[in-house]
């Protein structure tokens, strides 16, 4: 006798799970197909397939007989034209200064251009590579084509996508001739055998192929094309600012992908805890009230009397780069910056218009030290150089101790830069002056640094700008 087994309806939950697995599999396959199509499209229509748009930058030259030729020729062309290699190397050295290459590629001054500098990003730490001509650890085995591809397309010798901490999004605008001049100069450096530490990026940002998608949204490959409607001086400034000088990298805020926010160009941004201020011609938030000669003085010396004194990353830019620019290039940069759209940051008054001399020092005489008192700490640590009135010493003479009144750092809407200066000091060496302010980070607590900063902004600057001890702790190394 056969036993009949009754089978009831299948478990509904199991059926739903099976359907869900099939749906997820189809969704994954579809996503992968879209990804493959995207990569294929980019490889066909991306940088390699773009038409060459490079025009001789000679069209953008300012009319100055003393200015070196802007756009050094390739070695073979140079030889045919009777131009010596020394001129090419000199031009490359100048352009390397314009690009401030040493700032990122030098972690140890005893190893110039050997890399190793850690750059903190929201996605982890990127360490700069060795760009000396060492054959094993540097770029000694790179061809000119490899170097051009890295600068113009953000692709390394091995075909790997470079991270945008290397500003190829700006360097792509530099003419081939100028890129090869830089290469010629780098070839003359002493080879340094040094392998920098590896990057430390979080997953999935350590996957370089993802840069394909970043490039789709944030990168347009192509050389600078002079605007025939603009003057030669304007074009020269645009070429420098948009290209080698890569000013937007610090002075333009970033979008969610960490690309530059084109709608707010040059309106200011935060880099490594430092505020790179608004440099648009807005008269309140930017530099619209600055005279041309003040902007040139700031770029060439790091100081503009009654306006600002460069510190932090900008102090390094002045010391390593902009102080070496020719007067023609400095004027051209100013002309171009005057033309960009002004962007308001919402400030009530310009940063340099705040402050009055202090008159409270007499009230402190004989007062007992109790707790953390900003005024007492200022007199004890700062007044010997900046005067107890805050008016500084030496007026606008080279090497003067700057006034804290009418000072853009003290009058800023954020006290972060002021706290950074107290913590880390200032060291800015130029042909104009050797400026030194000691760092107080090891001598003062977070609460004491905050107290001094808040006293200085309240008395000499923007009284609404304050900083907490917790914030100071976050600004320490």
TrEMBL record:
InterPro entries: Cyt_c-like_dom, Cyt_c-like_dom_sf, Cyt_C_IC, Cytochrome_c-type_DH, Membr-bd_ADH_cyt_c. It is found in: Cell membrane. Heme c 3 binds at residues 382, 385-386. The chain crosses the membrane at residues 23-42. Binds 3 heme c groups covalently per subunit. One of its GO terms (molecular function) is oxidoreductase activity, acting on CH-OH group of donors. Keywords: Cell membrane, Electron transport, Heme, Iron, Membrane, Metal-binding, Repeat, Signal, Transmembrane, Transmembrane helix, Transport. PROSITE patterns: CYTC. The keyword Transmembrane helix applies. This is Cytochrome c. It comes from Paraburkholderia ginsengisoli. The lineage of its organism: Bacteria, Pseudomonadati, Pseudomonadota, Betaproteobacteria, Burkholderiales.
């Amino acid at each position: 006798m056969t036993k009949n087994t009754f089978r009831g309806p299948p478990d509904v939950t199991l059926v739903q799970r099976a359907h869900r697995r099939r749906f997820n599999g189809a969704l994954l396959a579809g996503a992968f197909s879209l990804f493959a199509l995207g990569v294929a499209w980019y490889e066909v229509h991306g940088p390699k397939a773009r038409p060459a748009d490079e025009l001789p930058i000679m069209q953008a030259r300012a009319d100055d007989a003393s200015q070196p030729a802007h756009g050094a020729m390739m070695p073979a062309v140079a030889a045919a034209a009777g131009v010596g290699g020394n001129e090419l190397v000199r031009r490359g050295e100048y352009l390397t200064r314009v690009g401030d290459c040493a700032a990122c590629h030098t972690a140890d001054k005893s190893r110039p251009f050997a890399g190793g500098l850690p750059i903190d990003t929201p996605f982890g730490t990127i360490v700069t590579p060795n760009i000396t001509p060492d054959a094993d650890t540097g770029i000694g085995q790179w061809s000119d084509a490899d170097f051009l591809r890295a600068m113009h397309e953000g692709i390394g010798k091995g075909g790997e996508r470079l991270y945008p901490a290397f500003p190829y999004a700006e360097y792509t605008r530099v003419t081939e001739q100028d890129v090869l001049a830089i290469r010629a100069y780098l070839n003359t450096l002493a080879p340094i055998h040094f392998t920098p530490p590896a990057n430390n990026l979080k997953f999935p940002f350590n996957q370089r192929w993802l840069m394909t998608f970043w490039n789709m949204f944030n990168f347009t490959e192509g050389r600078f094309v002079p605007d025939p409607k603009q003057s030669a001086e304007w074009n020269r400034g645009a070429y420098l600012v948009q290209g080698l000088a890569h000013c937007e990298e610090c002075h333009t805020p970033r979008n969610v992908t960490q690309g530059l926010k084109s709608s707010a160009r040059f309106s200011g941004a935060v880099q490594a805890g430092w505020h790179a201020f608004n440099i648009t011609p807005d008269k309140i938030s930017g530099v619209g009230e600055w005279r041309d000669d003040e902007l040139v003085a700031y770029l060439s010396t790091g100081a503009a009397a009654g306006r600002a004194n460069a510190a932090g990353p900008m102090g390094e830019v002045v010391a390593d780069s902009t102080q070496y620019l020719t007067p023609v290039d400095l004027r051209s940069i100013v002309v171009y910056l005057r033309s960009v759209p002004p962007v308001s940051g919402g400030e009530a008054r310009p940063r340099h218009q705040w402050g009055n001399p202090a008159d409270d020092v007499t009230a402190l005489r004989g007062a007992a030290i109790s707790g953390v008192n900003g005024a007492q700490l200022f007199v004890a640590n700062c007044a010997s150089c900046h005067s107890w009135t805050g008016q500084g010493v030496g007026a606008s003479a080279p090497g003067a101790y700057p006034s804290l009144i009418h000072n853009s750092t003290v009058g800023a809407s954020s006290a972060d830069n002021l706290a950074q200066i107290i913590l880390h000091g200032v060291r800015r060496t130029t042909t104009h002056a050797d400026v030194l302010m000691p760092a107080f980070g090891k001598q003062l607590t977070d609460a004491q640094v905050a107290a001094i900063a808040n006293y200085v902004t309240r008395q000499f600057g923007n009284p609404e700008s304050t900083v907490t001890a917790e914030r100071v702790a976050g600004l320490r190394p």
